[in-house]
Amino acid sequence: LDPETFAAESHAVVDFLDGYYRNIQSYPVRPDAELGRLRTLLPDAAPEDGEPVDVVLEDVRRHIVPGLMHWQSPSFFAYYPMNASTAGFAGEMLSAGLNVVPFAWAASPAATELEAVVVDWMAKLVGLPERFLFSGGGGGVLQGSTCEAVVCTLVAARDRALIMLGGHEGILRLVVYASDQSHSTFQKGARIVGIPPANFRVIQTSAASSYGLTADSVRRAVDADVASGLVPLYLCATVGTTGLGAVDPLRELGEVARRYDMWLHVDAAHAGSSLICREFQDCLDGAELADSVSMNPHKWFLTNMECCCLWVASPAALTSALSSNPEYLNNISTENAAAMDMVDYKDWQIALSRPFRAMKLWVVLRRYGAVAMRAYIRRHIDMARWFELELEADERFEVVVPRRFSLVAFRLRPRHEGDDVEALNRRLLMAINSSTGRAFLTHFVVDNKFIIRLAVGGAMTEMQHVRAGWVLVQEKAKEVGATPGR
Ligand code: PLP
């Protein structure tokens, strides 16, 4: 690494990205991409000799950017937006530039300690109970994604249960519970850790509980399993489901989980960011009954990909399931560190090597501070509220579930008896997304209803973009045959 080249080429990349962000609104949000096109534009093999960075950047501009979905576009309202920021990028640059590997305290003392500090800061900001802080006997780790975090908690829960059951054969009796609104990662995770697929229970929710789980429905499912000799292992509760933003009642579910000695995980991947605002803290009522909680700063907390906070009440449950101590990682300082009760993050996750994610989140927290972060979250929620009010005032549309965070789930109502309203809504979403690339939205299906989702959450999204989104939705509604209301 030659410092002169490093500086020149890094500046060239920053200049390139500066241009990208200045022009981002001129790109269609969704690319007009043709399957396999990029392969026809690139050579068949890697070059034998290196090429100058400006040649590489020119290819990025000509070949890569036109085929990208512009996730950072202010008119990206699909899935859950993953917001980038200046501080998130600065933190990522520092992390990538220093390129240390904090798998153990001895391998990177300050990076490990910063991670422990930053997860405690985040736990306090979102209002987690003391038991998830290092000072309260728990602790946190920064993982790459909720999916990885969930697998780690499932492994911890599984091993804890197998010890109680007295052997590995017990795995065939373990049952995992989730709702029909839980993220698919729980089913995948259960499969990965060896839970028989037939022992994954999907509990139905309904409009009556705003698509949240009820304690009764969980109790019924668990009782039936216990009666047939199965062992309840793990219950997933969500604060802000992916499809609709539904919230499960943690206290009631926690009581059920405690009664049956199940591990309770709280997945707040997206909505977790909003918990820094006191008006959302009621969603955490009962969180002290949970065993683990996760949320993704890379979704809605101005932290560039990737960054997921996982907190556990009992680090020992996690580390006894995940620790490995090969000779080649042993050294005097590791032994000292163990004696000092220091964290070796390799034992809190799947991989050994890991990036310095704490730097990124720490820079975000330091640069913006809690006050600006709360304002940022509330700004998005206000924009979503405005969009919801517009929908409610237009009789052609219905809001499918009351909005809680920054996600609005809506659809066109049938105009006449016998209308194929599902096809109508599919046509509407296609028309919104296909014509001009002015915005990008995605859908969900609940109770066999096709629903359009507008998720506000881009770092560059302002009121003008949400207004333009509403104009687009109205325009396309007319085009697909929904006559103007009001
Ligand atoms: N859980 C919820 C509620 C989500 O909305 C998502 C993604 O949108 C996930 C989990 C998966 O998160 P990740 O991509 O970090 O694994």
Describe the structure in your own words.
The chain is α/β, with parallel strands linked by helices and 486 residues long. It folds into two domains: 256 residues, Aspartate Aminotransferase, domain 2 (3-Layer(aba) Sandwich); 115 residues, Alpha-Beta Complex (Aspartate Aminotransferase, domain 1). It is built from 15 helices and eleven strands. The strands form two sheets. The protein has a seven-stranded mixed beta sheet, sandwiched between helices. The chain has a four-stranded antiparallel beta sheet with strand order 8-9-11-10. It binds pyridoxal-5'-phosphate (PLP). Pyridoxal-5'-phosphate binds next to α6.
List keywords for this structure.
486 residues, alpha/beta, Aspartate Aminotransferase, domain 2, Aspartate Aminotransferase, domain 1, 2 domains, 15 helices, 11 strands, binds pyridoxal-5'-phosphate
Distance between the termini: 64 Å
Mean model confidence by pLDDT: 95
* Distinct ligand kinds: pyridoxal-5'-phosphate
Strand line-up of the largest beta sheet: 1-7-6-5-4-2-3
Which segments are poorly predicted (pLDDT under 50) over 5 or more consecutive residues?
none
N-to-C order of helices and strands: HHHHHEHEHEHEHEEHEHHHEEHEEH
Q: Please give the domain count.
A: 2
Shape: globular
> Cα-atom Rg, whole angstroms?
24 Å
Helix content: 40-55%
The proportion of strand residues reads 5-15%
The biggest sheet, with number of strands, parallel, antiparallel or mixed sense and barrel status, is:
7 strands, mixed
Question: How many beta-strand runs?
Answer: 11
Oligomer: single chain
